[in-house]
């Protein structure tokens, strides 16, 4: 059993690691290291000076693997939707984050952390849209849990 | 040889470890966080709190000590000066809908590639398609 207090402590500690990683990324790369922006620019496959993004993602996947393998609560995984919904959501997330210029990390952590009002606005909007979407799934009967 | 690639690899490692430790990689947990009118699980608010505390204070302290000078000859970026426009709002709306459907934002989806989870193997390529559509259709990330 995982105690709720445990959840809060792990969430906070995990958050501090994400914040530290973002800070190091900001200072060492000279860019705002939001995940959706790094991902989108990696897709342009320019190589050379942009190759560090590939290393960053290799580290990200490796760091997650290490925690999945060693911390029981980190390995918890509960799928919520059918694969068709997941595919559709992936397109929406890829499109929306790049049209809006950021995701949970780029706007939610880096943008707000640098005092950007537009990042605060974006974060309020995507959180609100997420809340409404989950409400719709839970109340209109769209949900097909696996 | 510059230590920059190693430092950025390590930063990625910290990011991935933080996502997994915090519970952000569990879509059930994320949907629980967004389910404010149901069985709300507020714990993920502490992820943002912890991250913002370290990043915000760190960035401020660095600026006080070193000004705009970053590591390895870089310049530390400042906040965007772009306007609050329809692109920002519509983009954030579309992203939020996708996040609420799947429980995935970009970082956790990529982190779940570590365990080759089917959701991640479908979501990440779909996310690439979406990002490319935003570039081709709306000129995102062209610079």
Please provide a written account of the structure.
The complex is a heterodimer of chains A (146) and B (143). Chain A is an all-alpha fold. Chain A contains six helices and no strands. The model of chain A has no long low-confidence stretch (mean pLDDT 92). Chain B has 143 residues and is an all-alpha fold. Chain B has two domains: 78 residues, no CATH class; 63 residues, no CATH class. Helix content of chain B is 65%, strand content 0%. Chain B has six helices and no strands. In chain B, α2 crosses α4. The two termini of chain B are 28 Å apart. At the A-B interface, α1, α2, α3, α4 and α5 of A face α1, α2, α3, α4 and α5 of B.
Concise summary:
The complex is a heterodimer of chains A (146) and B (143). Chain A is an all-alpha fold and 146 residues long.
The secondary-structure class of chain A comes to mainly alpha
Q: H/E element string of chain A?
A: HHHHHH
Ends distance of chain B: 28 Å
Percent in strands of chain B: under 5%
Flag low-confidence runs of chain A: none
List the helices and strands and how they pair.
The complex is a heterodimer of chains A (146) and B (143).
Chain A: H1 4-29, H2 35-42, H3 52-70, H4 83-99, H5 106-113, H6 117-139
Chain B: H1 4-22, H2 27-34, H3 45-66, H4 86-102, H5 106-111, H6 118-138
Helix pairs in contact in B: 2-4
Characteristic terms for this protein:
heterodimer; A: 146 residues; mainly alpha; 69% helix; B: 143 residues; 2 domains; 0% strand; globular
